[in-house]
Amino acid sequence: MIVHVCNNYVSSKVHGKIVEKISVLFPGHQSVFIPIRKKSDAWVNSFFSGDVSFKYSRYPRFIKYFPFIKVLYNFLKFRRFFKGLDDSLPTRSVLAHTLWTDGSIAYFAYKAFGLRYSVVIRNTDINIFIPKLPQYRWFVKKIISNADSVIFVNGVYQQRLSERFPELYRCIRNSWLIYNGLDDFWLGSKFFGDFSSRDCVCYVGAFNHNKNLRNIYGSVKEARKSNPKIKLVLIGGTQAEFLKVVQSDVIPNWVSVLGKVKEKEVISSYLRRSFVFSMPSFSETFGLVYLEALSQGCNLICSRGEGVDGVVFGDHITLVDPNDVNEIADAVLNYYGRDFPSGNKKAISEFLDEFSWERVAHKYFDAIPK
């Protein structure tokens, strides 16, 4: 039996996908322990399966301001939960879905019950808990050094841990790099054709400073001086947010602001009209949206050292300085009217298949101690 510890289960569907796909590929019981702040969070993202059980455990809201007390409180709740599990289902291991909030519980379970565990290092661990809680770094070191395996969801995280906190990185006994998976929709609807009619630069995401919407807009404005046929399609924010971010009073007729769109089919239809997906963020952990765009035949513009730099290779990606509007504009112009080479289409398709949730779950299962 695998026991999952996941504080963020309610807020992200990624964790549920991992549990679900493991249950399909590797029959055997799984139990998921989920600390929650609100009663209404109970059963969010759960699913019916005879091999998977869920335990939503509520904790007082105020203890979120006391990280170590929160960890101890949730471990005591976990202890009661674990003792109530069916003894006929031998527990093999624990998968902690984050380093601090879940890995702490897994470490205490290791000390109390001898349970071996794997821990996943995510964005909040690298950018919040480790750097901003130096007083608990000794404890983080214990979590990492006693884990059978440490899983990174991004190569950038692995590099940052090794460079910024080498004393922690050296404690890792066995490391894995496992990216999140692509939704089946994108893998089942790949499209690499019809480049002759593609005239849009597309962006999908939040309308904020980090995503560099101002320079995305500025680069297309600059590119239109050479090719006025180029248009810009923006999905994920309001017209007011767009005007505020780009510091403009009007929306030009060559810009379409579509707001937040949940329907994948609608997003796909706009990506298929676009010859390039541009997201030169100032800081980007990975961004599955790059791969979603690639699956619909979009070339990619990404910042150096961010996003899918080091993951996607080839002529269909251009790495830029996010502060250089002219460099971004040159990348836009370079891709206009240019089809993927025929040999690349097959290679890209096979590359994307590596991000199926089935393959991701298989890697997680292999990484978990047996």
From TrEMBL:
Q: Which residues form a coiled coil?
A: none
Query: What's in the keyword line of the UniProt record?
Result: Transferase
Task: Give GO terms: molecular function aspect only.
Answer: glycosyltransferase activity
Which Gene3D superfamilies does the annotation name? Glycogen Phosphorylase B
Q: Which GO terms describe its biological process?
A: lipopolysaccharide biosynthetic process
For the keyword Transferase, the answer is yes
Sequence ranges assigned to domain Glycosyl transferase family in this UniProt record = 198-333
InterPro entries attached to this UniProt entry = Glyco_trans_1
Q: What's a Pfam family in this record? A: Glycos_transf_1
Instruction: Cite the CDD domains for this sequence.
Output: GT4_PimA-like
Entry protein name: Glycosyl transferase group 1
